[in-house]
Amino acid sequence: MEFVTIAGVKVPVLPHSEKFPVFPSSLVETDSVKQTLQKILYPMLEGMPVLLVGDAGVGKNALIYYINSLRKQPTLRFSFNEDTLPEDLIGSYRILLDGKGFTWSNGPLTNALSEGLSFVADEMNLCAPNIIKRFSSVYESNYLDLLEGSGERVKGKTGFWFIGTQNPSEGFEGRKPLPFDITKHFAVVYVDPYSPDEMFFILKKLYPMLSEEVLQQIIRISLESEKRIKSGEIGKGDLEKYHFNLRTLQKYCNRLVLFGAKDKTVSVREALYLFEEPFRKKEDKEKQRELIESEFGGAVKLVPTKGYVQNSTIFWNDKEIKTWDEKKTISLLSKYPTPEPILHFLDQVFTAIQSKENILIEYREDQDPQEFLPLFTELTGIEIESVMLSKGMHTSDVVGALKPTEEGNIESVTWVDGPLTRAIRKGNIILISGLESAGAELVEKMNMLTDDARSLTLPPESGEYLPIKLTDTSVVFGMKSFRASKSVTTISRAFRNRFTPILFPELEDVNVLQEILEFFLPEGVLPRSLTRFHLKAKELSEKRTIGSANLMPYRFGIANLLKWKNHIYRYNQTDVKDIAIRGGKIYYTNQIADPKERKELERLLEGFLSGVEVVSTLFEEIEEKKKTFTTESGLNRKNWWDPELHKRDPLTGVAKKLNSGEETKRGIEINTPETGGGTKEGPDAWYGQDTQGNQGQGEPQGGGGAWGYRTEELYKQFLKKRRLLWDYSIMVGLTEFKSVFGKELEEVELNLEQLFDPEIDIHRMYKNEGSRVDARKYISYKSGRGDTKIFDKTTIEKNDEKLKGVEVTFLVSKCRRIFNFEYSIAMLSALLVSLHILNEHDIKTSVHTFCDIKNSKDTVDIFHLKSAEEDYTPEKEEEVFGALCKNWHGDSIPEYQVLSNCERYFSPDAQTKIIVILSDFRGQRAKTYIEDELASFDTRKMKEAVLKNEEKNYVFLGVGLGSRYIAEHVFHDSLQITADNFYSMPNLIGAEIARLVQIHHSLRQ
């Protein structure tokens, strides 16, 4: 038997069928890659399935392709998504071309088993677990029963290997980790990101023609950019997730090889295109530009744009792109205005096309590039195929399905390609729109199409077992608008990473808009008047001067202005002013709901157009302008860069951060009053260097605890420098708090939101009408044993009603003993995150704090910050935050006292009642030894209260604060927050609440 050595492991080379593809791989064996390969290979040799988990772009599929390319083993890969069904993997019947019989077509999983191939279940965690369990016998026992077909058992032939991949649920929307009852059958391997040294080693190996200095510069830029994103320095507040990794670096290196490996201008330009241009905010772009220019030694003077078409080639500066229809290309370039922002946009698009990259065009909702679409999608002269996605579409609508051969004739059916499949076969330009609305279940189906494999696996009923591949002429364009809110779906970070994002310019500058209009209309008063009114209407709507009573502001985008121009152009008459006013009403004022506001805007419209009537020759000039659209053989546009604006001195230092958050992170100014115990809680309440102040874990014995710095010396310095305050308060507002911790809160919210997503429900339905024929139903009908309900109308839905009746109450011990900066900030973060996510999923919440506020030793004070019936509005968030920041000077009380009459915390409609209680659970008086704490009267009463309420179907989550692990002895479900993990408190509490909701609410359905 032939063997090959991979990462020091001897691996057999097995015979296989040559009809299946062996994907090439250019993976470079670094130290960490070798370690990862060994983690994969040993389980493989033992016949164990492997699950690869890792961030986007770390090379999970590349590792498998590399192993199999060396051992000459074909790989069958299937991209999982939410509408994946068992027959997609296992197989189905299809009708023969002559319509006289049927044959069974294996799915990719069945083919891999029977042929002894590797099967990659890509993005396996996107599929519903109950679907994955249909083929559990494959990863458990290496066989599959063809229940959908003949019923025979297919055993895995020697060489069969099952590999699953998944992105981590953290940072990836739409992802849930696979449950343990599935992963326990896999060898789980986490694929780590590359270190800077490994990145350099890999790039040097792949691109030996590039200088080491340039490689080191771009690696530093990439790492610093990723660091800034994670810290919130850039991209903060954006609802799209930016990501730079080795895949981005390889794009950069490919471009340098294409356009000039030794040209500094190219090095800077491509760094700007990949690391500055994707950002939406001006301040983010400026920071990235400063970073790039500092690395490359200052600004570089870029050459002006020059383009022309000759010998079936588009020459655009240093780019050369083949066109298959020269006349069409020239015609398109001469029919569209190309002001500076459009030229800059086109240069980025042409760069990506020549580099054979997938292109993601992103745009603001009111800056839809639809009017300019042919200018960048049809320039190569290749036919374009539009794939329009939407929520509710099935994969078959895009890929293809079995359909009747003649309309209304049920005698024969055949496979019909969907638009995506049709475009791949023809080598067309593929334009995929609606990515933001389709959702993961449809978009992720195209994973394999948009990565290095550049192919698509068709369902078994197509009769094709080999993936169909993109041709060299095809370019994949994706179109999506910016995400406006978290409730709106978007593409995953993993899918985005397979594209080169290019922002369509925001055409709002008065000179740019006027230049666009003057391309179609005579220069002068008319374009100027249209532009000024457009910008004024836009300003009034954005400031809510008009539409203030509406929930959403009016939107006036570039499409309104161009359609207004088209109206004037189409209906041009001698009285141009009347035509212009009519067009302005059609595309602007008619949509205004308030009559007074509409009339006022119409008055402004007439005012802006008042100068048009004095131009008596305007009608003739417009008619003459129409005649000027002649075909040109070449193009010479003005510079899209103003060289003078980009001359600047190189950076010699680092700018000072304006909002570093140091003031908040430093701590708070406090002093503690006496509590009646034997020991004061002021400067003398320091119990030795081992206790680290109190930190929720000091041993006060007769007295209370104290918050302080970690050493006595630091504490004394702290007191000298600050005015002593007698109240326990966090001196920070919500705005300042979010400016420091906002990025972390957003990340936690993103990671936790998907945990509350309802499960996927798959409803099998068959109808007399439809667009997708189910082969098994058709066979039953043809044999006379079934009815005419042969059309598959299976629906895949999320049942949002599943969370109805869930309520969560937070009980917070707000006493000075457990008060310290770390726990207070963590508690605030946890509550803000949890309340936001629960509110987003329509789960009612309430918040209550408890203590002995006057230190009277005989009262229990409960403060109701939010009831279950109150909405969690921004005003309520501010109110809750303010209350939790102030007045932590109360004494502690026995926690069991707040658990009497728990129904007061919930609404009458509550079905699943979850109580999250946060405290140190040390009762009114803390003890020296934990044994005494656990045996104390307060702890015993607390256990009794919890058990009593659990019998009434209350669900408890005890969150213990400090190093005393008391909560786990009192509650069935608990967390312990210590000095080592307090920063993860929001994530820990949110995830645990989600788990409790899923467990206990499901039991009551």
UniProtKB/TrEMBL annotation:
Single GO molecular function: ATP hydrolysis activity
Q: Name one GO biological process term.
A: ribosomal large subunit assembly
The organism of origin for this protein: Leptospira yanagawae serovar Saopaulo str. Sao Paulo = ATCC 700523
Q: Which residues form a coiled coil?
A: none
What is this protein identified as?
Answer: ATPase, AAA family
Listed InterPro entries: AAA_lid_7, ATPase_dyneun-rel_AAA, P-loop_NTPase
Q: Which UniProt keywords apply?
A: ATP-binding, Nucleotide-binding
GO-annotated cellular components: preribosome, large subunit precursor
Domain annotation Midasin AAA lid: ranges? 198-297
ATPase dynein-related AAA domain boundaries:
49-176, 376-499
Q: Residue spans with biased composition (Gly residues)?
A: 695-705
The domain of life is Bacteria
Q: By its UniProt entry, which Pfam families does this protein fall under?
A: AAA_5, AAA_lid_7
Q: Where is this region: Disordered?
A: 666-705
